[in-house]
């Protein structure tokens, strides 16, 4: 069946993640694609482009099997080429305890179909966790970096846990990298569900290396109840930090949950969704650059 060709403004998506495949000259766009992502989960769709402007799709890349562990809140799929296959890290709300967790799926092709690799989430069963992201350290060991959710602990954490070589399960205990309130740019989130609590949100961590090997992390939170994106830097150059924060948010105009990828011309691009309101969220692509040891937005990209 022929798929539609769409502009970015036509695609409702949250948590956009771009997998560039240079050998194909194609960009693969994944994200939270249910029309009502706060309700029952349908699965994940993807889109394909050669210019970040015209997208062909949607392609159904994951639909849950009948015995799947979750049926709601299918969020933030990230797809990586790893070990000769394509691995998806995605968040789901468990049926058994109603908590969020990130599970691992895999496929032989970037458009799937993706099938579960882990037996449920690889994040701790007792935690409400989300937005797991793959990081491979200098020794070649895989880790998941994820959020311990603010709704459970108030001051949200960014954590890391080492994974088994096949990514099917955790291979150690989680380590806390930092808390949301430690960043100078965040402010408490005023939640109508928790009106008497002081909450700091962590959302959407993503790690990448700068030109000189500096390890950076994108992550999202709120400024005066407006969604925003910040940057942290590892002072040791390794995953365990310590992590310091750029004093100002990288993007604060009601957008976030970012990731960084290389354009085929060598420039770095930032993908976020904006605004942070359903059903208005759309993918936004910006050029990002490293200047004087900091990440900055260099300007818009076509899309």
TrEMBL record:
PANTHER family: ARABINAN ENDO-1,5-ALPHA-L-ARABINOSIDASE (PTHR43301), ARABINAN ENDO-1,5-ALPHA-L-ARABINOSIDASE A-RELATED (PTHR43301:SF3)
Family note: Belongs to the glycosyl hydrolase 43 family.
Keywords annotated in UniProt: Glycosidase, Hydrolase
Pfam families, per the entry: Glyco_hydro_43 (PF04616)
InterPro entries tied to this protein: GH43_arabinanases (IPR050727), Glyco_hydro_43 (IPR006710), Glyco_hydro_beta-prop_sf (IPR023296)
Tree of life domain: Bacteria
Gene Ontology molecular function terms on file: hydrolase activity
Pathway: Glycan metabolism; L-arabinan degradation
UniProt-recorded name of the protein: Glycoside hydrolase family 43 protein
